[in-house]
Amino acid sequence: MTNQYMELSEEEMAEKADEFQEKIRTMEKEVQKGYIGQEDVIHKILLCMVANGNILLEGVPGLGKSFLVETLARVVEGTEMHRIQFTPDKLPSDIVGTEAYNEDKGFYVEKGPIFGNFILADEINRAPPKVQSAMLEAMQEHKVSIGDETFHLPEPFFTMATQNPVEQGGTYPLPEAQIDRFLFKIYLDYPKKHNEQKIIDMNANIMDEEDFDVSPVVTKQDVLDIQDFSQVVTVSDEIKAYIVDLVDASRNPGDYGMEYSEYIDWGCTPRASINLALAGRANALYNGRHYVTPEDIRAVIKDVFIHRIILNYEGEAQGLEVEDVIQNIVDRVPVR
Questions:
Q1: Does domain 233-332 have CATH number 1.10.8.80?
Q2: β pairing state of 264-266 and 310-311
Q3: What is the mean pLDDT of residues 242-249?
């Protein structure tokens, strides 16, 4: 399908970037009205949505991950939010749906909870591998097969999957190849003390949804238009070369004189290059620009790389963090 924004002039691109920046910022402010604190997490989730990617969120229980997705769905008019609570006894059909039979209707398709706009895949690492594969295939392809039929998922389609880092018993860790399908991996930390006081007052258990005063501020078509425009935000050859060098440094750290070169077991895959460009475009649009700068790439590199760089045993024994490696890459790789 041809992108409607490909033939715009430079001036028209700048006007559209301003228009969409305002809508993204309006969404951000509206979400913050209902979800207190975690401004950086909200910002990154919106960037991921603009880039039409999916996000893996790691955090301890009780931080309001479900409510965050519900709030995001409420700011986009006419969307549906579904929560899938993963457990070891889940089957793929529990996610995508199944064929059923009724005497009155005969054979028919019963669609699963994956058919929504905003999906919370809660504790995805508690699901067995077959269920994880079904979920990740739907995320990537935006379509599922039930029996002999293929069904496209509703658009916009955005998944936030969560992992609980505390409770590891009875879990099925996602393989690196599957984690690689997420655009971002981010960590949800405890709220600040001053925000936690507000959370006590705005307790979802004692307040109705209407009391949070969160309203739709954009339409589904607005989101789709923003995603389409994000795809044509300009990435110059110099920026592409910078992205390739950053990814290459994760694979061949010795070529760049990196401090931690002996501690990297695996570097980033080609998906990192693609996703760094996509996320850089989203960050540029968030800042009202129709072209990507090196600052856009540096703003998103941690969230794109953090689940794609694997440290070896020595690095883990030294207490090295992947964030340190990423910072070293940024410090060592110049813009061409």
A1: yes
A2: antiparallel
A3: 97
Cα–Cα distance between 31 and 35 in angstroms, integer?
6
Residues 188-223: pLDDT tens digits? 887 777 777 776 766 655 555 565 688 999 999 999
- The model's pTM is 0.91
Which CATH superfamily includes the segment(s) 30-209? Answer: P-loop containing nucleotide triphosphate hydrolases (3.40.50.300)
> In this structure, what token pair is assigned to residue 90?
């889940």
Residues 185-195: tens digit of each pLDDT: 998 887 777 77
What does the block give as tokens for 260? 């931690």
SS3 116: coil
- The string over 30-62, giving b where at least 16 C-beta atoms fall within 10 Å of a residue's C-beta and e elsewhere, is bbbebbbbbeebbbbbbbbbbbbbbbbbbbeee
The predicted pLDDT at position 176 comes to 84
| pLDDT of 103 | 81
pLDDT over 90 (residue 13): yes
What size, in residues, is the chain? 336
The ranges assigned to domains in the chain are 30-209, 233-332
Q: Where are the alpha helices (DSSP H) in 52-107?
A: 65-74, 92-96
Residues in a beta bridge with 145: 150
For residue 41, the surrounding DSSP H or E stretch is helix 39-50
| pLDDT band at 166; cut points 50, 70, 90 | low
Q: Which amino acid makes up residue 186?
A: I
For residue 210, give the amino acid letter: E
Contacts of 318 (CB under 8 A, 6+ apart): 263
CA gap 216, 100 in Å, rounded: 36
The upper half-sphere exposure of residue 39, i.e. CA atoms within 13 Å in the direction of its Cβ, equals 5
Kindly provide the residue ranges of all beta strands, DSSP E only, lying in 143-250, ordered along the sequence: 143-146, 149-152, 158-163, 184-187, 218-219
